[in-house]
Amino acid sequence: MTIQSESDPSKWLDLYGNFLFRNAVIRVRNKAIAEDLVQDTLVSAIQAFGNFEGRASVKTWLLSILKNKAIDHLRKSNREEQFDPDGEDCDEEKRNFSRFGLWRRFLSKWQDNPEDVALQKGFLVQLEGCMQELPERLRRVFVLKTFDELSTEEVCKVLGVSATNIWVILHRARLRLRECIDKNWYQSGALKK
Amino acid sequence: MFVISKMKSAISSFLSCKRYSERASRSFDEELSLWDRIGFVFHHYWCFTCRTFYNQIERIENCLGVLAKRSKELDPESDEKLTQIASAKIRTAVQSEIEKSPP
Q1: For chain A, N or C: smaller number of CB within 10 Å?
Q2: What angle do CA B60, B63, B65 make, to 5 degrees?
Q3: How close B82 gets to chain A, by Cα (Å)?
Q4: Taking a C-beta distance cutoff of 8 angstroms, is the pair A159, A141 a contact?
């Protein structure tokens, strides 16, 4: 890829369209919305190209525009929903813990070797799948924290949720991810294939 | 009163796996307070299941970091691709914007 093709906006869709789309799907999950975000990103980038100083690569710059578009989308769609900490999302705590706060069942160790490259690759694919299966509210917080590297305060502002609720959401998301990996990767026999 | 409530919190995380798991999860996002850390560390050493839980979420956190890093790179092998219809629609919008914008 030459610098010349990078700076030609008519080439951006071919060069970065799928890259932006993949990142949009991670953030909003819905493919139709992800396509709209890619289009908005490229259109905004063309409008703002005169201000692009070239400090970062075009790819990094486009990704930062996409991130902001996705955050705006989350902010808007979040306005309509209120988080209820005792609501629909609290199954995983009941599933995992007794009323005395003890584990309902013994957790067995994951026996594979994280240094094994092929196994690690499979684990990552499984983890990505488990991320996509998280309930929307839990997934949003996780994406903003992990993929967009926002601080807790920033996540609170975007989603209009208190810091205490963010800890609750993150904890539930981790419980779910652990359960999902354990079930689909370690217990299903996928690891042995 | 403040010290008593903090001690109660430390004791509850010392005794309860649920409280421990909450502290464990939180420890990945921020530093725990002294009292929470005391309860957390005691529980960590005597409860095998909670230690296993901690190691598992630690691995998940590390792998999420790898996924986040990977998402910033071009990946031609990725299954997630724009459909031809979507590409055509976006291309039209991009072309029309290029024509509108001054060179």
Answers
A1: C
A2: 115
A3: 6
A4: yes
B89–chain A nearest CA distance, Å? 8
Closest CA to A35 of B87, B56, B4, B39: B87
Interface of A with B in 52-81 (CB under 8 A): 59-60, 63
Amino acid B6 reads K
Cα B38-B41-B46 angle, rounded to 5 deg: 125
> Interface pTM (ipTM) of the complex?
0.82
Q: Tens digits of per-residue pLDDT, A9-52?
A: 888 999 999 999 999 998 988 899 999 999 999 999 999 888 88
Question: The pTM is what?
Answer: 0.82
- Total residues belonging to chain B: 103
Distances (CA, A) of B24 to A170, A171, A182, A193, B31: 11, 9, 18, 32, 10
Q: Which of B31, B80, B91 has the most A C-beta neighbours within 10 Å, making it the best mutation to test the interface with A?
A: B80
